[in-house]
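About this split. The held-out portion is used to measure sequence recovery: a designer receives only the structure tokens and must propose an amino acid at every position. Recovery is the fraction of positions where the proposal matches the reference. Here is one held-out target exactly as it appears in the evaluation file.
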């Protein structure tokens, strides 16, 4: 499906569903719609159970968590330091930019 990047207004939450299927469901009887909902809900339950039992997925998730810990810990420590130092400058009645503004310039820029 093509994306409408220039369109105005709210995004259609059902755009990933084919127009044909949507049209056929619009003309379906209530009993048919209820049966399809029940089937989809049961399928969701089966998928959730399969996901919970998937050992390979659990291994991959744990490996990703372990591998990303170095980055997460570093980012958290940097943010903690930034917040402390910004608070320190604010306590000195200094004009303190937002933390994201500091990343836009290097320490060498301040020395000039």
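Reference sequence for scoring:
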């Amino acid at each position: 499906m093509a994306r409408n990047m220039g369109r105005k207004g709210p995004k259609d939450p059902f755009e990933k569903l084919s127009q044909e299927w949507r049209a056929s469901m619009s003309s379906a009887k209530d009993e048919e719609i209820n049966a399809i909902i029940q089937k989809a809900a049961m399928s969701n339950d089966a998928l959730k159970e399969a996901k919970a039992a998937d050992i390979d997925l659990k291994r991959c998730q744990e490996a990703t968590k372990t591998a990303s810990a170095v980055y997460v810990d570093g980012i958290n420590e940097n943010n903690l330091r930034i917040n402390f130092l910004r608070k320190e400058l604010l306590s000195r009645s200094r004009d303190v930019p937002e933390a994201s503004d500091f990343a836009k310039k290097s320490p060498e820029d301040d020395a000039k």
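Annotator remark: The mean pLDDT is 88.
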